[in-house]
Design brief:
alpha+beta, Immunoglobulin-like, 4-stranded antiparallel beta sheet, 3-stranded antiparallel beta sheet, 64% helix
């Protein structure tokens, strides 16, 4: 018995010692969350890149103005000024050349704040997105690739502590990305899940089969099926997210019937979403773009004098946007190429191989593919004995479109008032909440139609809805990680580094081309076209005016350059989005088409690069040299058609009989 007593005392003593050191060990491993270091009075980047300019924001005191001095660790003054009471003063173009210059001391009045951000060389900022992209393309497994990219960026934010980086990956990137209501992330996830649930109901009630049967006489071959998909994308012009998910989910059963590969469907959906929304005068993109252009014009007018200043001050941002539309070469040529590949029934590269596989009956998708949406479960099959009524799917889809359109008008009118134009109304609308309203209405209408006709019981209807939601889970994980990687690229300064890297001095006529490449590279690396536009448009417009060197805009020549550079930001952002595997619209296109995400990127990339190269050469450079847009655009379409004719491979047609087979 005594030996037993001595036996338990030794482990207990060890446990006590372990508990005593546990808090210190936890502090070492967990560290202080990066967000906790942020000073309320001073805001600075979490990661400072060597020799890359950054901004420090200083908040003024409650009552008095304060003198501000920013010094590096060596005591050298690198920025100074004053900040008014309750004001926020931004000190731009602050530069730190080496790690030894940190931490910075920011003195606001009598108080000194330490800025001890992580230092990294500029090239490190492009490693997180490049790692994610490379791993995804090499191993064809996108979730692990995205996690690796986010973790690498979090490693820098966490001061190169790998354990802290793991915790920061979850609490500072994944969770905020999923819960971002201001940026619309939460609404997009709920919209996607709800739309997936609606698709589950209309698949089980036989409505999807009914749509296929109704459309079959009109789309009796692959050519007509692909053209019909492009036209559907053109019809839902008002929002790229709604376009992608509605068109993809609606047309997939039809293109499956016609043996169009899932890769091709994803390409058709992706290329008729953002390009169309960016081109039309009324869409959820317009208000955002016009506001950015307005800010750029204001900045440009403040930095010039004479007739140029008066002209810039009197320009309407919306008018400038309308005038940039003919210069949006990539979106216009991208949609043109969709029509060319559909009408000519030709493809090249990996897309041609995917189409040949599908047409030969060897599978709509690659063997072993990890589909972004799981369509193999029984919920996508119509219930045995259910009627094939097209309106059981058509009415819910039309409900989504109608409610979203109506919601855009109502929310926009509430923002700008009843006297505003239709363009201004749609531009000021809240697209994210209207998407929620539309998807909820679509689910309710689908359920009411199904239950009212007694096709499914309440339990079966809920099961079908839940099955549709479950099919979207993988895609939502990918989308959330893509957003997380986008946040990482902001924290490590990817956009600023790329802007500096690609922003060397060039002749003025090459400026639109440089802006297009810069915008594309930035959107490719960050996965977001809207952030790219927000960063570049306020910089590009004043830069164009400055480089013009007072030569004047009144004669129209320099004004054409201004339109070209502004449109190059918009077009380049969409181009980079199409090329990037971490773009949200690319992920949603894979989701709607039920395609392997990496396969979608791999097959679409050559098409996007080709169209981008033609748009860059004939559009950005050509028009800057004086080539009219009315010549550049038809010439670009002709070049694409010739390329497709020479290098494209004809894909065998599937006639008649394919339209009467059951969807697998």
């Amino acid at each position: 018995m005594p030996s037993v007593g001595r036996g338990w005392r030794r482990p207990l003593a060890g446990l006590v010692r372990a508990l005593a050191v546990a808090p210190g060990l936890a502090l070492l491993l967990l560290g202080t969350p990066a967000g906790a270091r942020a000073q309320e009075a001073v805001e600075a980047p979490r990661v400072i890149l060597g020799s890359v300019p950054f901004t420090i924001a200083v908040h003024g005191a409650e009552e008095l103005s304060s003198l501000v001095e920013v010094r590096n660790a060596e005591g050298t003054l690198i920025a100074s000024g004053t900040v008014g009471a309750r004001e926020v003063r931004e000190f731009r173009n602050v530069v730190v050349g080496a790690r030894g210059e940190l931490p910075l001391d920011v003195r606001v009045g009598d108080t000194t704040h330490a800025v001890d951000s992580t230092f990294a060389p500029g090239w490190f900022s492009i490693l997180p997105p490049l790692l994610a992209i490379a791993l995804a393309l090499i191993f064809k497994e996108v979730i692990t690739a995205l996690l690796a990219g986010v973790w690498l960026g979090a490693l820098a934010v966490a001061g190169y502590n790998p354990v802290q980086a793991t915790w920061r990956l979850v609490d500072q990137y994944v969770v905020p990305a999923l819960g971002d209501t201001d940026g619309g992330h939460t609404q997009i996830v709920v919209f996607s899940l709800m739309l997936g649930g609606m698709v589950g109901i209309v698949s089980r009630n036989g409505g999807t089969r009914g749509v296929v049967r109704a459309v079959a006489p009109l789309a009796r071959n692959r050519r007509r099926g692909k053209v019909a998909t492009a036209i559907a994308g053109l019809a839902i012009f008002f929002d790229d997210y709604a376009n992608t998910l509605v068109v993809g989910n609606t047309m997939r059963p039809i293109t499956d019937r016609l043996k169009v590969s899932r890769e091709k469907l994803a390409y058709l959906v992706d290329s008729t979403a953002a390009p169309i929304a960016a081109l039309v005068p009324v869409s959820t993109w317009v208000g955002y773009e016009v506001s950015l252009i307005g800010g750029g014009l204001t900045s440009a007018a403040a930095t010039t004098t004479g007739a140029d200043a008066a002209l810039l001050a009197n320009l309407s941002p919306y008018t400038v946007f309308i005038q940039t539309i003919p210069y949006l070469f990539y979106p216009i040529l991208a949609f043109s190429f969709v029509l060319l590949t559909s009408f000519m029934n030709r493809d090249f590269g990996s897309m041609a191989r995917a189409e040949a596989r599908a047409a030969a009956g060897r599978g709509l998708y690659r063997e072993g593919a990890m589909l972004a949406t799981d369509t193999s479960k029984s919920f996508v099959d119509a219930k045995e004995g259910s009627p094939r009524r097209w309106w059981n799917a058509g009415i819910p889809v039309l409900t989504v479109v109608a409610v979203v359109l109506g919601g855009l008008y109502v929310s926009g009118r509430a923002a700008v008032g009843e006297g505003a134009s239709l363009m201004d109304t749609f531009g000021a609308a809240d697209p994210f909440n209207t998407l929620l309203w539309g998807s909820l209405a679509g689910c309710l209408v689908a359920a009411v139609l199904t239950l009212g006709q007694r096709i499914l019981t309440v339990h079966e209807c809920i099961d079908a809805w839940a099955g549709g939601v479950k099919a979207m889970i993988t895609a939502m994980v990918i989308l959330t990680l893509a957003w997380s990687l986008g946040a990482v690229t902001q924290d490590v300064g990817t956009a600023g580094y790329l802007s500096q890297l690609l922003g060397g001095n060039l002749p003025l006529f090459l400026l639109p081309a440089l802006v297009f490449v810069t915008s594309g590279a930035m959107a490719f690396a960050t996965g977001t076209s809207w952030t790219t536009m927000a960063i570049l448009i306020p910089l590009v417009i004043p830069l164009t005016v400055s480089l013009a060197g007072g030569t004047g805009f009144a004669d129209g020549t320099m004004y054409g350059i201004l339109l070209g550079t502004t449109s190059s930001v918009l077009a380049g952002a969409i181009w980079g989005d199409h090329c990037s595997p971490i773009s949200d619209t690319t992920v949603l296109s894979s989701t709607a088409a039920a395609c392997d995400h990496v396969d979608h990127v791999r097959t679409q990339l050559p098409y996007a690069l080709l169209v981008g190269a033609v748009g860059l050469t004939l559009g950005s450079v050509g028009t800057a040299l004086g080539l009219p847009t009315w010549i550049a655009l038809p010439l670009g379409v002709a070049v694409l058609a010739i390329f497709l004719r020479v290098f494209g491979t004809p894909v065998p047609e599937i006639e008649g009989s394919a339209a009467t087979e059951d969807v697998a």
